[in-house]
Design goal:
single chain, alpha+beta, Immunoglobulin-like, 2 domains, 5-stranded antiparallel beta sheet, 4-stranded antiparallel beta sheet, 9 strands, elongated
Length: 191
């Protein structure tokens, strides 16, 4: 019995020493490491009324470097195009009654990004989710893709294109981005 207790005590002491030594070694490395903060990119505010639109709302540009540029010029016209776009697209697709099944249709919208010196984050809502893209003069990158409840999302990337799909049952809606030798173009397909 005494021999078993001695072995148990030796094992506990060795294990405790190993854990303490490992912790101090790892702790010293982790406290000395500098972790980079994630970059937060500004997103445009959602359109009023809650209606989903396959057309992008107006972009919110990143803050300019020169303080002499007046702010109202860049944010003044933003609400008007977004609300008129929402009204137009909300009337176009219509909502079929829940009792009958609508025929599959394809609605396509294309928005070309104007070349600028800085990047601009744009949000593209489609039925099933929302995609936020960082559009630059020569490429685009995915900021976020958020599916609505009950929908699934999948992303495909190529060297000069990107595709984000939102699926639910037999419904599938997509956001395509391409920049093959031209400024990025965004196309939303609602099926």
């Amino acid at each position: 019995m005494r021999n078993g207790l001695v072995q148990l005590g030796a094992w506990a002491a060795a294990t405790g020493a190993a854990v303490a030594l490992s912790w101090f070694g790892v702790h010293a490395v982790l406290t000395g490491a500098a972790f980079e903060q994630p970059t937060a990119l500004p997103l445009p505010s959602p359109a009023a009324g809650g209606a989903r639109s396959p057309v992008a709302s107006a972009p919110v540009p990143t803050p300019p470097q020169e303080p002499s540029t007046p702010r109202p010029e860049s944010s003044g016209p933003t609400p008007a195009p977004a609300s008129s776009t929402t009204q137009r697209s909300a009337a176009a697709p219509g909502t079929p009654p829940a009792s009958r099944r609508p025929a599959p249709t394809t609605a396509t919208t294309t928005a070309a990004a104007a070349p600028t010196a800085t990047s601009t984050v744009r949000s593209y809502p489609v039925p099933g989710g929302k995609v936020a893209l960082d559009i630059r003069p020569d490429n685009a990158s995915l900021v976020s893709a958020t599916p609505d409840p009950g929908w699934q999302m999948q992303v495909w990337n190529g060297p000069q294109w990107m595709r984000v799909d939102f699926t639910k049952g037999d419904q599938a809606n997509s956001v395509f981005v391409a920049w093959n030798g031209h400024p990025p173009t965004v196309e939303t397909v609602v099926r």
